[in-house]
Amino acid sequence: MKVLIGVDESPFSNAAIEFVQKMSWPAETRMIVVSSLAPEVSSFGAYEPAAAVKAAGVRERIRELQGDLVERSQKTLRDAGLQAEGRVIDGDPREALLEEARRESADLIVVGSHGRTGLEKLLMGSVASHIVAHAACSVLVVRRGMSKGAGRS
Questions:
Q1: Other CB atoms closer than 10 Å to residue 111's CB: what's the count?
Q2: Which of 85, 125, 133, 140 is paired with 114 by a 20 to 30 Å CA distance?
Q3: 8 A C-beta contact, residue 73 and residue 17
Q4: Taking the domains of the chain in order of start, what are their residue ranges?
């Protein structure tokens, strides 16, 4: 079984990792921890070369921080006796996680939920909602606090 776990810097992501860590999984289940580096939205770099260089440095620092997050998540899962690997990928998390799940032939995608509703959800979008609506495999959306109910056998 392959389980793709989408992570970001939020506590909701931590809840998803904790939930997965505490669950019982079939032998040989492979956890794939993925963080997505969203594309840049600004176009000021075309007019200000110095600003573009500075933005590239910031982007690389963000990639490093996401790499640290993925490594910590992998370690948490490995410490629980699970097989885990991870990567930072490029793209909007909604589509990048779906594409990675397709590429890996994942059986399950696990994401945390920020719990946005109403106007906030409309304006900011929802990675979890998009993945639930478009994934080719099963999706588990973990709400913060759900990890307390999981138990490993």
A1: 28
A2: 85
A3: yes
A4: 2-149
Beta strands in 2-117 (DSSP E): 2-6, 30-37, 83-90, 108-113
Classified by CATH at the fold level, domain 2-149 comes out as: Rossmann fold (3.40.50)
Residue 76: both structure tokens together: 């948490």
Task: For the chain, give the percent of residues with pLDDT over 90.
Answer: 60
Q: And the tokens for 100? A: 């990675």
Query: Number of C-alpha atoms within 13 angstroms, CB side, residue 53?
Result: 3
Low-confidence ranges of the chain (pLDDT < 50): 45, 120-124, 146-147, 149, 151-153
Both tokens assigned to 153: 């056998």
Selection from 96, 108, 134, 85 nearest residue 23 by Cα:
108
| Total Cβ atoms within 10 A of residue 42 | 9
Overall pTM surpassing 0.90 (yes/no)? no
Beta partners for 89?
Answer: 36
Give 60's contacts (C-beta < 8 A, 6+ positions apart): none
Q: Is-contact 101 130, C-beta < 8 A?
A: no
Question: Residue 115's closest CA among 145, 144, 147?
Answer: 144
Three-state DSSP class for residue 1 = coil
